[in-house]
Design brief:
By secondary structure, the protein is mainly alpha-helical. The protein has one domain. It has 6 helices and 2 strands. It has a two-stranded parallel sheet with strand order 1-2.
Length: 111
């Protein structure tokens, strides 16, 4: 099969594969901060990483959106006064995934 035929058949194959995937419920950042549906989880902070989050403009937007979505419901100083320290990028930056994989490999070798 030539490359054009493979590319043309990709949407069909993807559609077939997706029929077997269980849909996941959508969870908003506000749900995470509130502790989910029952509000019983105490979240100490939110770390947002990945390629898109490298854009410096997004963190202030996300923080404002979370505060607006919570609409005063959560009266925690972490949310109302110190949200810059509550919703943060990973401390290891772009290296978090690679360093995590290395740590897992080291642990696996110990066993």
């Amino acid at each position: 099969m030539d490359i054009e035929s493979r590319i043309d058949s990709l949407p069909t194959k993807l559609g077939e594969a997706m029929r077997h995937v269980e849909p996941r419920p959508k969870i908003s950042l506000s749900d995470i901060i509130l502790g989910g549906q029952d509000g019983l989880v105490n979240v100490l902070g939110v770390i947002l990483g990945g390629g898109v989050m490298q854009c410096d403009v997004l963190f202030p937007l996300v923080r404002r959106h979370v505060q607006a979505a919570l609409n005063g419901y959560v009266q925690s100083a972490d949310i109302t006064e110190r949200i810059d320290a509550y919703i943060v990028p990973p401390a290891l930056g772009n290296r978090a995934g690679v360093l995590g994989a290395i740590a897992l490999a080291i642990e696996a070798l110990k066993d």
